[in-house]
Amino acid sequence: MSGHAQEPSSVPEDDLAPTETTGYKVGQQKTLEELARLDAEDDSLARWKASLGINPAASASTSGSGPNVEILSLSLTAPSRPQPIVFDLTDPAKVKSLKSSPVVIKEGVDYSVELKFKVNHGLVSGLKYLQVVRRMGANLDKLEEMIGSYGPSPEPVVKKLVAEESPSGMIARSGSYTVRSRVIDDDKHVHCDFEWVFKLAKEW
């Protein structure tokens, strides 16, 4: 799933604004072939480009299809849960249903968001995950974490983010929580933007 949310969101757009990288300016994007040739004699730069999968031979033949960054799934993982809760983000109908089908999260446990994505045919710089949790119209929590920079690869990337602790207590268990999740890069391209809902319970 890519692009902006299609329906009005219960989480204001301003709440999803990422922190600006100091000194970073959005510039003209270069092709992988241009990047591969850039400062070819610089060993440290060559190692960095190699870590992103950029090299002259590969970049010339890279011809992935679809969106540059394809977010395949978001999962909730926890040591206290045998299997993760997986959101399939490749099916628009399933993504839309997340707003009306709350998932259950056990109160007072550590859990992590795990993203699975593919970079198809270009370099993506400064990929970042943003998440805002709201309840009864008020923001309760905001998570912002850097995912990294990646070059194209046929294999999906799986990135587990920092663990957070779910709220606990009788009041916390009443009602539901709305979460808006977004994946954005340094060039302000939104690669994924959707909402999901959870409820807290004494057990998973």
UniProtKB/TrEMBL annotation:
Molecular functions (GO terms): Rho GDP-dissociation inhibitor activity
GO CC terms: cytosol; membrane
Subcellular location: Cytoplasm
Gene3D superfamilies on file: Coagulation Factor XIII, subunit A, domain 1
Signal peptide feature range: none
Keyword annotations from UniProtKB, A to Z: Cytoplasm
GO biological process, one term: Rho protein signal transduction
Chain intervals for the UniProt region annotation (Disordered): 1-31
Family: Belongs to the Rho GDI family.
Function: Regulates the GDP/GTP exchange reaction of the Rho proteins by inhibiting the dissociation of GDP from them, and the subsequent binding of GTP to them.
Cited PANTHER family: LD16419P, RHO GDP-DISSOCIATION INHIBITOR
Protein name per its UniProtKB record: Rho GDP-dissociation inhibitor
